[in-house]
Amino acid sequence: MQFTLRSVSFFSIFIFSLLHVPTHAIKKSYIVYLGEHSHDSEVPSADLDQVTNSHYQFLSSFLQNSNERPEDVIFYSYTRNINGFAAILDEEQAAEIAKHPKVVSVLPNLGRKLHTTHSWELMGLERYGNAPSQSLWKKANFGEDIIIANLDTGVFPESKSFDDEGMGPVPSKWKGICQNGNKEDEIHCNSLSDKGLPRQKFYPLISAADTKAGNVSSEDALLCKAGTLDPKLVKGKILVCRRGGNARVEKGQQAALAGAVAMILVNDELSGNEVVADPHILPASHISYADGLDLFSYLKSTKTRDNTDLPMITAAKDEATPFSYGGGHVRPNRAVDPGLVYDLIPTDYIKFLCGLGYNQTQIDLFTKGSFCPKSFKITDLNYPSITVPSLSGTVTVSRTLKNVGSPGTYHGSVKSPPGISVELQPKSLKFEKIGEEKSFKLLLKAKGSDVAKEYVFGHLLWSDGTHNVRSPIVVKSS
């Protein structure tokens, strides 16, 4: 088949014209972040509308060569916590907007899914892909032979959830035997007389980050740098310092100067397993990074610090408070053996409603046959947290603890909120059996008239050396 010169020319022009057909840029969803607002989140709706209008005005300058309206391009305005908007833009528009001096960033608006790949390690159930011996997973045999049913309006006994096929017989209960000794010291069975045991003195263990002086950062205090430690908080304790920032021997010197009886030096991640013998001036031990993680985990009975043993922070980069984390991060391994609990029964909640001012008619809507006591303070609800929202004069708060562990004596210690005096009565509680209950009181009083009229935070800790029962203390002076 032959083509004439004229037909070839026409074909070339046709192909060339195809190359100049206008193409529309691909539109995507972007988030334009403009930084913080000048106002807080509690603002009138009219002011929020002004923020939205400012977003329209800002974007209009980038749409001058387009038939698009800002109101059609922007599909969401962030008017409260952050200043910005989400819009449908092409890559060229997004790049131009990103050059503007008022713009912090322009990011593709991508869908994110929650990953649980680190959840087990975060909760202490797993370490480096394996369940350690103290893990609840290991103790519970990873949930083997446990049937879980969802209880809603009722369940069907015929449900497959109750099928025990393939589970084998129910294990027999082994009670064991008592092997008697020689009775020479009147000690029977597999036990040990304490007559031959040396009397040891136990010293409190504390992270250097919890002993910072003045306006020193927790990061510097944890490194035990000169002038970062408060002797009042260090004296008589074993201090845990982190490696890095200054010489290892200097850390021991600073610990001794602050009154520490001993020091544990923990490697940072960079130092790993390297352990060096140093001539410290006080009893000291140097441990690896991995062992340090375990030690810091022990120090935090409830987790109000992050994985670097520094105070938790909020999304706004402020130091977190009990309003942010409550009593602390859940720790399943410790939750199964808490030692003590603050027990509550339905009657306690009825008393709480009475304290809020509910009358008998209103109480009868919840329950029949319950009556309000002559007097009840809402601050006395037997809750694990202790809150006094309007402190005036001296306020007494009562709580009752129930022993759910082995017998023992718990000693109480208080970290008072700034500007607040807190007295604990009594300072120790002895429990002799499971289910036994003991009560205590906290007397709170402002130290002076210049106490800030905002919430301040502290905590109460009961410890028997094994269990640590921590309660946040939240106070606002009237």
How many helices? The count is 14
**Terminal CA distance:** 101 Å
Report Rg: 33 Å
Q: CATH fold name of the domain at 340-477, please?
A: Immunoglobulin-like
The strand order across the widest sheet is 10-17-16-12-14
Query: Overall 3D geometry?
Result: globular
CATH architecture of the domain at 340-477: Sandwich
- Which consecutive residue ranges, at least 5 long each, have pLDDT under 50? 13-23, 174-179, 183-200
From the helix content, strand content and strand pairing, which structural class follows? Answer: alpha+beta
**What's the number of extended β-strand segments?**
17
Kindly provide the name of the CATH class of the domain at 340-477: Mainly Beta
Task: Outline the biggest β-sheet.
Answer: 5 strands, mixed
The share of residues in extended strands comes to 15-25%
| Average pLDDT level | 81
Helix content: 10-25%
Q: What descriptive keywords fit this protein?
A:
single chain; 478 residues; alpha+beta; Alpha-Beta Plaits; Glucose Oxidase, domain 1; Immunoglobulin-like; five-stranded mixed β-sheet; four-stranded antiparallel β-sheet; 22% strand; serine protease; signal; SBT; protease; Peptidase_S8/S53_dom_sf
